[in-house]
Amino acid sequence: MDLEKIKDLIKSDTVGNRILVYEELDSTNDLLFKMGEELTEDGTVVISDYQTMGRGRLNRSWFSPKGVNIYCSALFRPKIGVSESAVFTFIASLALMDSYESIGIKPKIKWPNDLVFDGRKLAGVLTEMKPGKNFLVDFIVVGIGANLNMRIEDIENKEDISAIATSACEILGRDVDRVLFVKDLLTYLDKYYNIFLEEGVHSIVAYWVNRWGNINRSVKINIDGRTIEGVVKKVDRFGYLYLETDRGDLVKVISGDIVF
Ligand code: BT5
């Protein structure tokens, strides 16, 4: 399988210092989370060519057809409080943005965890955390699903996905090299992880906010079926949004889905 080649290409000290590649898994996040309980090193990466039970947030599923996209997870052992773990979703989005830009695609970030192109979902991030002692993180598993060579015409029978998704090959009109894409992705994850280690959470939030580009813009957010609208005033170190509504209230949004 071509993805095996990635093991020879990554030379970083942290992200990808150990890479496990599988033909098939239920979910890369599930395997790495189990490994994390047994003291797996910071930066360990699991990649699978296919997932039978790929997961999104809130018990949603992540469609993971064989041999076309990237499904990978990375384990981190940062010294941060449990409430700060959302910064790893930001680290993954930044790495994904840079990786897609390297192949000529400029996606947009959709808070909190999506990459979209022309309003269609190109990639998603699932960050899961094991709490340790004293409200500190034991470990974090960041799962990344990146659509590369999946053809929307091939998944027309999966209407829930084909109506909202896109992929690199749909945008570029040609297939992309999955190995080179994962190489970039892990290299950029390592870059942003090191920025986080050297400069802290604030620096990553600042990079992310800058790329997101929605400060002082009006957004609509769906929260459990209710939509609220307001102007984004800030994003804090926990990844929460602060919206100013037209009544002048400042509302803190912890989770939800941005509506276009
Ligand atoms: C996400 O959740 O976007 C996080 C996706 C993370 C997937 C990776 S793959 C490697 C690792 N192992 C796992 O088991 N998971 C991670 P969320 O924001 O909840 O979005 C889920 C929604 O996206 C679904 O309900 C669908 O509407 C849509 N969706 C599912 N599969 C998709 C795909 N391949 N492309 C685009 N949209 C998809």
Question: Can you characterise this structure?
Answer:
- The mean pLDDT is 94.
- The chain has helices at residues 6-9, 28-36, 87-102, 159-162, 168-172, 178-199, 201-212; strands at residues 19-22, 45-48, 70-76, 108-110, 114-117, 120-131, 137-146, 218-223, 226-235, 241-244, 250-253, 257-259.
- It is α+β, with helices and mostly antiparallel strands and 260 residues long.
- A hairpin with a 2-residue loop joins strand 5 and strand 6.
- It folds into two domains: 3-211, Bira Bifunctional Protein, Domain 2 (BirA Bifunctional Protein, domain 2, 2-Layer Sandwich); 215-259, SH3 type barrels (Roll), CATH 2.30.30.100.
- It contains seven helices and twelve strands.
- Helix 3 (87-102) packs across helix 6 and helix 3 crosses helix 7 (201-212).
- Bound molecules: biotinyl-5-AMP.
- The site of biotinyl-5-AMP has 29 residues, from helix 2, strand 3, strand 6, strand 7 and helix 4.
